[in-house]
Amino acid sequence: MNGQTTNQPGGKNTMVRSESPHVADRSWFAVMTVPQNEKSVVRHFELREVESFLPTYESRRVWKNRQRKNIVLPLFPTYVFVHISPQERTKVLQSPGVLQIVGNRRECVPVPDIEIDLLRSNFQQRPIEPYRELLIGQRVRIKSGAMRGVQGTLIRKGNRARFVLTLELINQHAAIEVDPRELEPIAG
Predict the structure, then answer these.
(1) Beta strands per DSSP E along the chain
(2) For the segment 11-27, what is each residue's pLDDT rounded down to a tens digit?
(3) Residue range 91-148, pLDDT digits in tens
(4) Which domains are present in the chain?
(5) Distance CA 115, CA 27 (A)
């Protein structure tokens, strides 16, 4: 079981922990980490044989000496996703850098598989980036393809349409370029 980093076009890199047997009783959960320790936490999960996923994006930074550099950052700072069974909670919580598994006071709340699938799919090679502004716009649903049924908010950035996926459990957002023809409005 090897962890791996995959470099994908569009500036999106992901860290993924390889799967183990008995995946049927597992769910995806958001894990809150110590700030700026997401990659370290993923490495600890690899050592403990815990399947994890850290969505990332590439950002161009200009340093004081005017040097430009592309750096890889977590798409959702302080969050890593784990695919675990209830018996594996302790391995996660005892990992250095982990603060908690996101949930309510009584239980950990799983992240819907379809949302993780969208983040892992690299959404047909389109750039993805964090979106921290207030969500203003129409609720829409992807109507075709592998991510059919995923819901989000339609926004504009410049003259391009963006689909904003909201992970309500952790109150985080990611914006993905989409063709508006791939979307349908949600009544309500």
Answers:
(1) 3-8, 12-17, 27-33, 51-62, 68-74, 79-84, 98-101, 110-111, 128-130, 139-142, 151-157, 160-167, 172-177, 183-185
(2) 444 555 444 445 678 99
(3) 999 999 999 999 887 888 999 998 898 888 865 567 777 766 545 577 888 887 777 8
(4) 1-111 (3.30.70), 123-188 (2.30.30)
(5) 12
Token representation of residue 169: 């459990």
**CA distances (Å), origin 118, targets 49, 89, 124:** 24, 24, 10
The strand pair at 139-142 and 151-157 is best described as: antiparallel
Q: Which of 128, 25, 24, 14 is nearest to 80 (CA)?
A: 14
Residue 10 burial by Cβ neighbours in a 10 Å radius (0-12, 13-18, 19+): middle
**Are the C-beta atoms of residues 65 and 79 closer than 8 Å to each other?**
no
CA pair distance 136, 104, nearest whole angstrom: 27
In one-letter notation, the amino acid at residue 8 is Q
Q: What is the pTM of this model?
A: 0.68
